[in-house]
Design goal:
heterodimer; A: about 600 residues; alpha+beta; Rossmann fold; 5 domains; 8-stranded antiparallel sheet; 14 helices; 34 strands; B: about 375 residues; TIM Barrel; 2 domains; 9-stranded mixed sheet; 3-stranded antiparallel sheet; globular
């Protein structure tokens, strides 16, 4: 039954040509004609297209007539491209038996690709390495092939060489998919177990789940149960994507497609959950399911207080499609009413913020990203602290633990020293140092996540001229010597600038932040002291001196209109300020103040 | 807003300069002296195009450098205005002059031709500062200007000073103010050097040259106020000081939102709530007038609450403040104004808004201009 099915994913770094390759496969197998093809069909969101990343996985079935005369059903399951979505990547990889590892012939392997490749190897997938863009003049297929071979084993000769752009090597690739990827297993007579590897919200149909049937069959009208959430529903519609949605009577083992039940609440449909039938229920769900867990937190506040309701609506709408986004109302003395949002990672945070600003036309102030700390109180109670405001006073605190991540960095060998220096500054503990080739090194560190969320990626890029890449995964909590540093403007703590930080770095943070704010806060009617303090102990101080002159020298007959307009414009400019107590702080200061360079 | 309106003022612009000062953003031309006669013909023609107006209360011939042109051209303009509109008894007729152009003969000719007041671009009594400002005279030439002008028949003499250029030390400024006072003028204007867009100075500053420092200027302003008021001058506007009875009538009228006619390149006028401005390019100015048209570049109608706000923002520049009860009431309710009131930067009493610290006039003006009309 399943011998002529092949399920596979494509693992590739941003810009290494995953979408172009997917398009080419669809085109070559006749799933879609070149003329109809919206370029890079699989990336449907504008933002994805612009940033060249894939946020949501998609599944496409294509039929391929192979050289052996048989027609194969190829299910291409697209995976999210970024570390923030590694849970979703892992579930997508659970839905396939093989993965194409696509590497740019001019660039070589990047950390992100490496991390996903390791995930695929751990998931037991067959990996077919492919070097793309061999048509480019700067292509170095031999060098890259050696690099790839050293990562996944095997010989450079087994690495396929293609150009998704020109179509060169695509036929060989299709044959390799059939020949080298195993057919899926599964028994149609077993109880149904179907893995949800993605979902999205459709405003007319409700939640659409992407599923891969592992065992049994799922037909239209079947009564189903979602095993993790316990939700009971009926399969209103079952279908495949060709890439257009086509209804089918049922899906059997090894097949992928979509399931619509009419559920409107995306919270009830979790990626990684197992769908079974109620008439013959499976006893064990498929392995790998986890509750979505935010890693990075940041407060989002509307610049205009009136926009609070609009922000709430926008977050609600975003969440319809993104169960991993969490938010709860937060009140800041400095910034007013807003939301404490939880994100899977930094990129996720950036995407959400950008979508809120762009698609919902909101002007936002966001606070410094932080992580979730575990604070043990003297009473023995353990508290998860997602915002510096929630950290108990020092005397009520028995200890704090912070999350660590394993960071994998790939860099040209001449930057090894630079990368290590940065990682050490960020309290990193060296793991492995692995020369993939004489030119490229994999450097592994365990680093507190808090050190990563604070401009680590920008620093890594700028110190290696953009050549290094990075990926990370959580490795649990560890005790740490942490302190909460408050920033006081005119004697009042500004909650937006408070941070939890390692004790050895408190002074650097405090003095950096006070100096930065002194530059960012315009002179006002009175002296403004800016202090950094741990509890009541002031560790750094600057002053914004009172403004002494705010008048134009000349205002005569010829100046009146111009002068009035100038003053009116300046008045408009003041609207882009937030009042913090009696101090006017430019909105940008909240963002700019957090970009402290390492000294 | 009371019954009999004040007589209108009148501004006449003479754009010709020997060279353009690095800080100047007025409508000026250098190296186009061949156009002078043609320009004055155009000016006289423009005066005849202006709609009827009552006798003028004041005339101000500014520039540019009006003192560079032949005195008969200047006095012909005064005669033209007198013929067309009339001048009230004792009308103030001011000429702006550069010290290097001045001579007893010239002064006498201009006074005979109707000028009663002269305002000199003295700028500084420090030759280093004068050089930095691009001025062509020396400090020593300034000593006799006042006496010479009075002897020639001018009833009022004013000196303009500029402070805060980077080469000017606090001591230099102190000495400049003292020497200006010693020269005995009736009126002194002290201007903080300002970087205006599009000027040579703004290009230099953008390229990294040191610009004026606000704290230095605040110090120097304070010094000027102390020395001048100590010498008996009344500090009657942000940048202006006068012996009693010698306030500039032309400017007083503009700060009171009065009407003023305007003639010449880039000149701005105000009549009955309409602000208008002339074209700023000299060739266009001449051609338009020679084709029988008024050289207007644009107008702006200021009415109702906006006019009241404008009157208030102009009025607070004067020492006596401005009586504007509705604006004062709105201001008293404003959150930002509260801080400025608490800091004693200004006060509101019986509907009069008055600056207590003129260095913060713009801070108050911004609040004023943002006030919503009552009931809105």
């Amino acid at each position: 039954m399943t011998t002529r099915i092949r399920n596979f994913s494509i693992i590739a770094h941003i810009d290494h040509g995953k979408s172009t390759l997917a398009d080419r496969l669809l085109e070559r197998t006749g799933a879609i004609t070149a003329r109809d093809m919206k370029e890079q069909l699989l990336d449907s969101m504008d933002l994805e297209r612009e940033r060249g990343i894939t946020i949501k996985a998609r599944a496409v079935r294509i039929l391929y007539s192979a050289a052996d005369g048989e027609t194969y059903e190829l299910n291409l399951i697209d995976t999210p491209g970024h570390v923030d979505f590694s849970y979703e990547v892992a579930r997508s990889l659970d839905a396939v038996e093989g993965a194409l590892l696509v590497v740019d012939a001019t660039q070589g392997v990047e950390a992100q690709t490496l991390a996903n490749t390791y995930l695929a190897i751990e998931a037991g997938l067959e990996i077919v390495p492919v070097i793309n863009k061999i048509d480019l003049p700067a292509a170095e297929p031999e060098r890259v092939a050696e690099e790839v071979a050293s990562i996944i084993g095997g010989t450079p000769e087994e690495v396929l060489q293609i150009s998704a752009k020109t179509g060169e090597g695509i036929d060989e690739l299709l044959e390799a998919i059939v020949a080298r990827f195993p057919a899926p297993g599964g028994n149609p007579t077993d109880p149904l177990r179907a893995l949800i590897f993605d979902s999205y919200f459709d405003q007319y149909r409700g939640v659409v789940c992407y599923i891969r049937v592992m065992d049994g069959t799922l037909g239209k009208g079947d009564a189903v149960r979602f095993m993790a959430t316990g939700l009971l529903e009926h399969a209103d519609e079952v279908g495949i994507l060709t890439p257009e949605a086509v209804q089918v009577a049922s899906l059997g083992p090894g097949e992928s497609g979509y399931l619509i039940t009419g559920v409107k609440d995306i919270d009830l449909i979790r990626v990684g959950d197992t769908v079974t039938r109620t008439d013959r229920a499976a006893t064990e769900p498929l392995p790998g399911y986890q509750e979505p867990k935010p890693m990075v937190f940041s407060g989002l506040f509307p610049v205009e207080g009136d926009d609070f309701e609009r922000l709430r609506d926008a977050l609600e709408k975003l969440r319809l499609n993104d169960a991993s986004l969490s938010y709860e109302p937060e009140t800041s003395a400095a910034l007013g009413f807003g939301f404490r949002c939880g994100f899977l990672g930094l990129l996720h945070m950036e995407i959400v913020r950008e979508r809120l600003e762009r698609e919902y036309d909101l002007d936002l102030v966001s606070t410094a990203p932080s992580v979730a700390y575990l604070a043990t109180q003297v009473t023995g109670e353990v508290l998860e602290v997602r915002s510096p405001q929630d950290l108990p006073q020092p005397n009520a605190l028995a200890g704090i633990e912070e999350p660590y991540v394993k960071v994998m960095m790939l860099a040209p060998s001449e930057y090894v020293g630079t990368v290590m220096e940065l990682a050490q500054q960020r309290r990193g503990i060296l793991g492995e140092l692995n020369y993939l080739s004489p030119e490229r090194v994999e450097i592994d560190y365990e680093i507190p996540l808090a050190e990563i969320v604070f401009d680590f990626f920008d620093q890594l890029k700028s110190r290696t001229r953009g050549y290094a890449s990075l990926d990370y995964e959580p490795v649990g909590y560890r005790p740490a010597e942490l302190a909460k540093v408050d920033i006081l403007l005119n004697g009042q703590p500004v909650d937006a600038f408070s941070t939890i930080i390692h004790k050895d770095k408190a002074y650097v943070y405090g003095s950096g932040m006070t100096k930065r704010l002194q530059e960012l806060i315009p002179r006002q009617m009175f002296d403004i002291p800016i202090q950094a303090a741990i509890g009541s102990r002031v560790i750094a101080r600057e002053t914004v001196k009172a403004k002494r002159k705010d008048v134009t020298a000349k205002c005569y007959g010829g100046d009146i209109s111009r002068k009035r307009k100038l003053l009116e414009r300046q008045k408009e400019g003041k609207k882009r300020m937030k009042m913090v107590g009696s101090v006017e702080v430019p909105n940008d200061a909240f963002i700019d103040a957090l970009k402290i360079e390492d000294s | 807003m009371t019954g009999q309106p004040d007589p209108a003022g009148c501004y006449v612009h003479v754009p010709f300069c020997a060279r353009v000062c690095p800080y100047c953003d007025f409508a000026v031309v250098a190296g186009r002296d061949e156009l002078i006669d043609r320009y004055f013909e155009a000016l006289l023609a423009e005066i005849t195009m202006e709609p009827e107006a009552g006798p003028l209360g004041s005339v101000f011939v500014g520039g540019g450098t009006p003192s560079r042109v032949r005195p008969d051209l200047l006095t012909a303009v005064v005669a033209g205005l007198r013929d067309r509109f009339g001048l009230v008894d004792g009308a103030e007729v001011t000429l702006e002059a550069n010290p290097e152009d001045w001579s007893p003969e010239r002064a006498a000719q201009l006074a005979r031709g109707g000028f009663s007041r002269v305002s000199f671009g003295a700028q500084s009594f420090d030759d280093g500062v004068l050089a930095e400002l691009g001025r062509l005279h020396r400090a020593v030439e300034l000593e006799r200007l006042v006496d010479d002008s009075r002897a020639a028949g001018f009833a009022s003499v004013s000196l303009d000073l500029i402070f805060g250029s980077w080469s000017e030390s606090p001591e230099s400024w102190h000495a400049t103010v003292e020497r200006a006072i010693a020269a005995g003028p009736d009126h002194v204007s002290t201007y903080a050097l300002t970087v205006e867009r599009g000027t040579e100075l703004s290009r230099q500053v953008a390229a990294g040259a040191p610009g004026p420092d606000a704290d230095d200027q605040a110090d120097k302003y304070t010094v000027a106020v102390e020395l001048l008021t100590g010498a008996g001058y009344v500090h009657y506007e942000v940048s202006n000081f006068a012996r009693p009875g010698h306030e500039c009538e032309y400017n007083r009228n503009t700060w009171a939102q009065g009407d003023y006619l305007a003639f010449g390149l880039g000149a701005h006028g105000h009549r009955k709530g309409v602000r208008r401005r002339n074209v700023r390019r000299i060739d266009a100015y001449l051609e338009v007038i020679e084709s029988g048209q008024r050289p207007e570049a644009g107008t702006e109608h200021i009415t109702g609450w906006d006019a009241e706000l404008e009157r208030a923002f102009l009025g607070i520049r004067r020492a006596e403040g401005v009586e504007a009860p509705e604006v004062a009431a709105a201001l008293a309710d404003d959150f930002e104004a509260e801080g400025l009131l608490a800091a004693r930067k200004f006060e509101i009493q019986n509907g009069v808004i008055r600056m207590l610290d003129p260095l913060f006039t713009d801070a108050v003006a911004r609040v004023v201009l943002g006030l919503a009309a009552p009931g809105e």
